[in-house]
Description:
By secondary structure, the protein is of the alpha/beta class. Helix content is 15%, strand content 37%. The strands form two sheets. The chain has a 22-stranded mixed beta sheet that branches. It is elongated.
Amino acid sequence: MGLRADQRGxxxxxxxxxxxxxxxxxxxxxxxxxxxxxxxxxxxxxxAAAIAAATNGSxxxxxxxxxxxxxxxxxxxTNNVTVQPTVVAPNTGLCPSSLYNxxxxxxxxxxxxxxWLSQVxxxxxxxxxxxxxEKILSSTAVAQQNTIKQVICLLALSPIGTALxxxxxxxxxxxxxxxxxxxxxxxxxxxxQANYGLAHTNNSGCGNKQKSNIRLVPDPYAYMxxxxxxxxxxxxxxxxxxxxxxxxxxxxxxxxxxxxxxTGAGSGTTYxxxxxxxxxxxxxxxxxxxxxxxxxxxxVIENGQLDLNSxxxxxxxxxxxxxxxSGTSGSYSHIPSDSSSHxxxxxxxxxxxxxxxxxxxxxxxxxxxxxAGPGVDLTYNGNRPTWDISGAVYLPNSNVRISGxxxxxxxxxxxFVMVASTILINGTSNIYTQSPAGAGCKQGGTQMxxxxxxxxxxxxx
Length: 461
């Protein structure tokens, strides 16, 4: 009886059964705490790497992100660690839509750690590596580069050298304008007083706010080229100083009716317009009259220049025109000019309708298929002729030298945009002040080129 009543050894027996379980749960608790701490540390590394990748924003973002995680002790491909940076399109996955729909940069770090005491309670982990059961830890971060959308009124497209330059132009005034180079920009003597000076590589001195390493701005108007009509001219193309045919000598009113039509060679779009073969010369002040100022009309000059010859060329109130230079290379000039020493004025507004005009918002359009060379280059001195223009001047393969002022046309919106291969501002040059955020160009139908200026990066996940 005394032996049965003696329970002094029961606790020891119970502890013998419970101890492995207790050790297992304690081990699981310790390991779970360690997993949590490691995951938090991995999260810090992923956050830093995602921010670095989004700030980089180039094709080298993967190397940038992996270099950052390595500083935290997580080297891709070492010690069962995987670091996977990826680009995520906006409004998909973990990347929210943004005002300018910038991509996100996601970094996921995965690491495997061996199991210890947690196996005592039967936890088998997530995977087995070399016969060892392991737990997979993972942390993910997503970052997005915020940007400012900025419209441009002066764009140099060449990706080589210093595509936008000023040379001793202390009084140049481009207030209300943002200038951009798809290469470097260098301003010597004047910052142009532009709102922003932007460059894809290095910006040295251009703009009141100067930014480098801006994304390339693609050619904004090349998409209109299929609307250029097929060349129906035949040799020879009359050239100055020889005698030009009567059709190539303008004075008085140049009427373009709705029945005067051209058809885009690549688009099949039909629109009001006239084609002239070889040089065109004014022999008196000339007013262009078109059916309206929305569709307007197109004047195509094949293998020739438009010589104002000391006279004024104007679009009438309620009219609009695109002067288009096309043809082939060689000795032909494909620009507006003035062969006199007296000066003249090109006073035109561009068509405003983006739905019916073949070259909406284009006052002067140089065929992008014209090869670079002297025939497409332009020097604007401000009086031969003077430009009073509402709309865009598109000279994609031209080296442009500007030494004069540009004013608004008599009847058009306050909008001027120039796109060229390279642009040199030499001497005093002023472009009339334009509406904030390109409101005048919107009114006039000109879609301004857009640059995206990077600002701060933020984590979105």
